[in-house]
Design goal:
With 391 residues, the protein is of the alpha+beta class. The protein contains ten helices and ten strands.
């Protein structure tokens, strides 16, 4: 059977996706990269990145057009995060966490809730964070203690959420809380909490190894009284919504890992062509070439797995059944983050002593890569998830 060149677009992004990549890369290099070292050094929020992303409608591309958003598909969202992470991992958490925080509303929220909270997010007037983890409930998220008690037309929330990305900067928070302690995971409900709600406060920013430009803080809920219509979906469905959300958003962490790894590989590739030892560029030595070959191979394998997972995510979002999304989301996140850690470590090695200094970006990339193996479910948990959902 004869076939033409266009019959094999199966395994490559569309022309629109390639154009998006070019546009985001140009923006990231011009408006985000120049501040990346300073943002890391000063552990400050990358306001320049937020301003640039909002000005170009790239801060929350996943929001559907019906709520004022770009309506970008899951692969387009991955490409935006990947290209921002290539120059600054902290900044890539702006589009990534906006999706994580708001996806429960998109998946399970009422029409009123969607209109109320997705429109300001799409406009860039607010960011959205996700409150699942607690001091004693990390990998065992169903063991959470934050409570929501019904009081007439309101719920009263009390508890502490830990490791909340962009806490204090975001206006909106998807909060998981126990509404029926007898039912464990089936007794957990989801709510939208606003930063301005009385009783909401934040802990001091965590002092972290990497992603220092993205604030990570505890969120304290002290008798926070919110209208009952701020519940996302029906009572008791919050945990199921949280897990469904992670099936989609773990792919954004894979995207972040891809970007960090690509940035490290690009820098190392340029360096070995310039750096001379024993009378020739170190890139001419076979040992160095083999390291670069392994780095590029792992990165490309991670990218193919991540893009395939993103395509599944989009098909599921459009109503196409489960498509093994739980397995593919976990596999993409786990594989890409492990690859990013290996690639950034090797990139530091290729620069030798220079790689270990803050005068070069690779030690930052190596530090930033580490968290991708930990958040949105440690890679040990991803392996449990994969084993339970083998395709």
């Amino acid at each position: 059977m004869a076939s033409s060149v266009n019959d094999f677009d199966l395994y490559r992004p569309s022309e629109e996706h390639d154009m998006l990549r070019d546009a985001v890369r140009s923006l990231a290099e011009a408006k985000i990269a120049p501040y990346a070292a300073e943002v890391d050094e000063e552990a400050r929020f990358p306001q320049e990145a937020l301003d640039a992303l909002v000005a170009n409608d790239l801060h929350a591309v996943h929001v559907p057009e019906s709520y004022g958003g770009s309506g970008a598909d899951a692969l387009a969202t991955v490409i935006v995060i990947e290209e921002v992470a290539r120059v600054c991992a902290s900044s890539s958490l702006i589009p990534a966490v906006n999706k994580l925080g708001s996806l429960p509303v998109i998946l399970s929220g009422s029409e009123e809730l969607k209109k109320k909270y997705l429109a300001p997010l799409a406009k860039g007037d607010a960011m959205f964070s996700y409150c699942l983890s607690e001091p004693d409930a990390g990998s065992d998220a169903a063991g959470m203690k934050t409570k929501a008690v019904r009081d007439g037309d309101f719920y009263v929330l009390n508890g502490v959420k830990r490791w909340i990305t962009n806490a204090g900067v975001s206006e909106y928070y998807t909060v998981m809380a126990v509404t029926d302690p007898e039912k464990r995971s089936k007794g957990i409900s989801a709510f939208v909490v606003e930063k301005s709600d009385p009783g909401v406060s934040f802990g001091a920013p965590e002092k972290k190894l990497g992603i220092k430009g993205s604030p990570t803080r505890e969120v304290y809920l002290d008798n926070v009284r919110i209208p009952a219509d701020r519940m996302i979906g029906a009572e008791g469905t919050g945990f199921a919504t949280a897990m469904k959300t992670l099936d989609h958003t773990r792919i954004t962490i894979a995207a972040q890992a891809l970007g960090i790894a690509q940035g490290a590989l690009d820098y190392a590739k340029g360096y070995v062509q310039e750096r001379k030892q024993f009378g020739k560029p170190i890139g001419d030595f076979q040992g160095v070439q083999f390291m670069l070959a392994d780095m590029a191979m792992k990165l490309e394998a991670a990218r193919q797995l991540t893009y395939a997972a993103a395509a599944r995510s989009e098909r599921v979002a459009l109503g196409g059944g489960k498509e093994d999304l739980t397995f593919f989301g976990a596999a993409a996140k786990c594989y890409a983050s492990d690859a990013a850690m290996e690639i950034t470590t090797d990139a530091v090695q290729l620069l030798g002593g220079y790689g270990y200094t803050r005068d070069y970006p690779l030690e930052r990339m190596m530090r930033d890569a580490k968290i991708t193996q930990i958040y949105e479910g440690t890679n040990q948990v991803q392996r449990i998830v994969m084993a339970r959902n083998l395709p």
